[in-house]
Amino acid sequence: MEEHRIVEPATTCRPFLLAVCRPPGLIAQDELATIKAWGRMADMELDQISLLNPSEPDPSDLDLGKYSGVIITGSPFGYAHPQNTKSVQHLLVEERVGSLARRVVAEDFPTLGICFGLQALARTTGGTLVGGFAEDLQAPTITLTEEGKADPLTGRLGGEFRSYTGHSEAVGHLPPNTTLLATGSFCHVQMVRWGKNVYGTQFHPEITTKGMRIRINSYGDTYYPADQKEQVIARCDAAEVTGANRVITEFVQRFRR
């Protein structure tokens, strides 16, 4: 089952904040809808800020006390791109997501960083990003570590689940004082925790089978050779990824206040 009915909260809850690191479009729309659905959130429970829009508040000025938690999205922008090729938007999102990442870790504020969000958290807190561990559009098995099995958020997911991936960089060396919660057979660092409340995933818990079709149609010759589209669709359609989608559910349920 991919879709959850969004239920109006019985009492007034502080909303979550979606820090968006990608331009508007079909992927951003699907991302928003899936996070709402799997978080079982009404419209009033999810605010948005675009980290690509210079007219929106700087993360250092946000009143985080208004929110239950923060979710940092993925992004088409990557840290490995040559500096002299980066657009104004690219440089802006790196600066602003870095500011937000440093702040939530320093305050141990409930946060879930997804893909680019994880990389921002790692890069700004002393970790390193490396090439060589790229994963194209597929659904590898994610395995919880012993720490992951004991964690109050991931411990409810079972020992293994599959999740969609799509990234060109990965976390190489973990930042100090972090806990590795989940690994993969090829890309080793798949989920990390800072302190007690800040989480990051390299995999994509916000992508459903329907949402992966949108990305396959958008990313030909980026994450896979365009002439292999039908094979990519077949392998992605065959994957059961609702275990990964539950990361969104568990994060929201744990930190909603």
How would you describe this structure to a colleague?
- The protein is 31% helix and 20% strand.
- By secondary structure, the protein is α/β, with parallel strands linked by helices.
- The protein has one domain (16-255): Rossmann fold.
- It has a nine-stranded mixed sheet with strand order 2-1-3-4-13-12-11-7-8, sandwiched between helices. It has a two-stranded antiparallel ribbon with strand order 5-10. A two-stranded antiparallel sheet has the order 6-9.
- A hairpin with a 3-residue loop joins β12 and β13 (198-201).
- α5 runs antiparallel to α6 (229-237).
- The two termini are 27 Å apart.
- The model is unreliable at 4-10 (pLDDT under 50).
Produce a short descriptive summary.
31% of the residues lie in helices and 20% in strands.
